[in-house]
Amino acid sequence: MKVYLLEDDNAISMGLKYSLEKEGYEVTLTENAKDARNAWKNGTYDICILDINLPDGKGYDVCKFIKEKEDVPVIFLTASDAEVNVVMGLEMGADDYICKPFRINELMARIKTVLRRSGKRTCGAGSGDASVEKLGNITIYTGEARVTKKEEDTGEETTVELTALEYRLLLTFCNNKGVVLSRNQLLQDLWDVAGDFVNDNTLTVYIKRLRDKIEKDPADPQIIRTVRGMGYIS
């Protein structure tokens, strides 16, 4: 499993590299945005861990650069849990973030969760079970972590590209059909932890992104519907 690590603090980067390699990961480490772009040109990775504040730019820009080439899972490292940092990272396509200082065991758990949910590297085309779930015109092949959408005009199935957390959110709705889920319930399931860094804007970003990808008319959603004052229902 290949990890790309971007961190400009030498003490943190060396500690993380050592800990990741001890867990069996193959780590490529760079300390600035310029070297990050060069490293990405020379290889592909299973997951990226990106510091936000860099000596020659921002981790957001590196994330955008990476996402334009491949939809690889991204975890941001941030020195602040300020709402603006969290939302900006999620809008860039990040799958998770963790605030400094953090416990190494927590980061390892986040990495495993993101990799498990992404399905890009852990599930082969013919692996897993044959379980198929339906949600409106959306089909979820859970054994492959693959999602398709049936186009009304042509009847064809097209692939829906989701990030790990978007996929997890979709599965949550699929597993609770006909049940109103509160925002708090969704946030707890989305992050798999209960913490004060979770906020409503985080969920709003993901609901919007998911609707944009699966709804015929995101402004008038039929798959994930809002129940005013209560939450959402599918």
- The best one-word shape is globular
Low-confidence stretches: 120-130, 192-198
Radius of gyration: 18 Å
Spatial strand sequence of the major β-sheet: 2-1-3-6-7
Classify the oligomer.
Answer: single chain
The secondary-structure class comes to alpha/beta
Report on the structure:
- The chain is α/β, with parallel strands linked by helices and 234 residues long.
- It has two domains: 2-118, Rossmann fold; 132-233, Arc Repressor Mutant, subunit A (Orthogonal Bundle).
- 39% of the residues lie in helices and 21% in strands.
- It is built from eight helices and 13 strands.
- The strands form four sheets. It has a five-stranded parallel sheet, sandwiched between helices. A four-stranded antiparallel sheet has the order 8-9-10-11, covered by helices on one side. It has a two-stranded antiparallel ribbon with strand order 4-5.
- Strand 12 (225-227) and strand 13 (231-233) form a beta hairpin.
- Helix 2 runs parallel beside helix 3 (59-69), helix 4 (83-91) packs parallel to helix 8 (200-214) and helix 5 crosses helix 6.
- The two termini are 35 Å apart.
